[in-house]
Each structure stands twice: as structure tokens, then as C-alpha cells.
Amino acid sequence: MFKLIIAVALLALGVSPAVPQVDGVISDVHSLPMRFEWRQEGPADTCGSTCQSWVSAVGVITGDTPAKFNTFVQGRGVQGAMIVLDSPGGSTLGAMTLGGMIRRLRMTTAVGRTIELPARDGETPQARLSPDADCESMCAFVLLAGIKRHVPAEARVRVHGIWLGGRSHDPMAASYSAEELAIMQRDLALLAQCTIEMGGSIELLATAARVPPWEPLRFAFA
């Protein structure tokens, strides 16, 4: 049985070992839209015949993420492959759609950080997996989509209640229309249905819903 350790918290970004520059400004890759890359473990003299391959999924889940994933998988043999998540979460509908695609491809999900190794001349770039990674907010529900799921003891899975986009940073100062509240109720119902269909416990969603974005960090287990 899949046992998920949940650290219930505000949305907290992970720290990347590599910090790229975007338009000359240093940016954490976890704050950028999710990107997908095919990675090969190495070097071969370390893992030998057991070297594995995986899809690295790093960054924020947006409404465009499912389309980007669909483009990425074209022509690649990802059926039954492993997708390794390192994400602060993001769009509720985007995450549910991405999760559905992962389930249809019968992929294994895991939490991990992909660390690229120095390339050797004439060889395919290789990487290693670090368990020091984060799967936060809606990422936890993408994690559920795997036929098999792997969460290393060192990894952190955090959840909190869903909120309207653009309001989570100052939720107490905002006012909400009836239409916006209806959208939140709809998304919560869809997320409950998705959780059950993926074989997860409704307690995961209940735990998340008990934590609005203005509450302090606390831990729970499911």
C-alpha cells in the first residue's frame, strides 16, 4: 500500500542546485513553468547494467503543462517509464489533466531531483537522482497518478488547500465573487473525484483542505 508522508504547509519553493539566468536575472528553476527532459543515469561504470532512464519534470504546473507534456511524449517510448517530480505545484486543472495523461501511459511516479553530470566527450549527457526534492501542493495529486509511486524518506511532499490563482499570496485582503467561489467548489469536487479514481485516500484531500494559505506550517500523515 502506498504510504504518503505529507508535510502540510504553505506553498514553499524548493532550492535548486543549479540556478539559471532568465533575461539576465537569476531565477530558481522551480519558479519557472514545468519542463520535461529525458534523462539517463550514469556513469555506466557506476551503475553498470542497472543504469535507469527517467523523465525529469521540474517547475510550476500551469494550464499549458499538459499540452507541453503531450508534445514531449510524441515519438518517445514513455509508456511504463518513470517520471520524477520536483515541483511547487500550480494549476489545479493543469495538474489533474497531467495526472490523467500519466495514468493512461501507465507511468511510475517518483519524487526526486535530477542532477546533471559533467558531459564526457562524445557521450550522451548523464545524470543522477537525488532524494532531496519537493513535491508540493498540486504536485502531490500528480504523484498519485503513477501506477507505482516512490517517495524517498528524504523527499518532502507538502499540501495545502486549493485557492484562486493570483490570490494565494494575500488571501485575507482579497474579496471574492459568487462566480469565483463556485469555481473553487467545482475544482474541489473534481479534485476529490480525481483522488479516488487514482486510488488515493480522500484523507489526502481533507488534510489539504484544512490548511488555508495563511496558516503556519504543520505536519500530518496519510
* Class per helix and strand makeup: alpha/beta
Order of helices and strands: EEEEHEHEHEEEEHEEHHE
Do you know the CATH topology?
2-enoyl-CoA Hydratase, Chain A, domain 1
Q: What summary fits the major beta sheet?
A: 5 strands, mixed
Basic shape: elongated
Residues in helix, %: 25-40%
Kindly state the number of beta strands: 13
What would the average pLDDT be, to the nearest integer? 80
Return the CATH class: Alpha Beta
What's the domain count? 1
* Poorly predicted spans: 1-27, 216-222
* Percentage of residues in strands: 15-25%
CATH architecture: Alpha-Beta Complex
Instruction: Give the neighbour order of strands across the main sheet.
Output: 4-5-6-7-11
Radius of gyration: 18 Å
- Count of discrete alpha- or pi-helical segments spanning 4 or more residues: 6
Description of the structure:
The protein is an alpha/beta fold. Helix content is 27%, strand content 23%. The strands form four sheets. The protein has a five-stranded mixed beta sheet. Strands 10-12-1-13 form a four-stranded mixed beta sheet. The chain has a two-stranded antiparallel ribbon with strand order 2-3. Helix 2 (65-73) packs parallel to helix 3 (92-104). The chain has a single domain, classed as 2-enoyl-CoA Hydratase, Chain A, domain 1. It has helices spanning 44-47, 65-73, 92-104, 139-143, 178-197, 202-209, and strands at residues 5-8, 21-22, 25-26, 35-40, 53-58, 82-86, 108-111, 113-116, 127-130, 134-136, 149-150, 156-159, 218-221. It contains six helices and 13 strands.
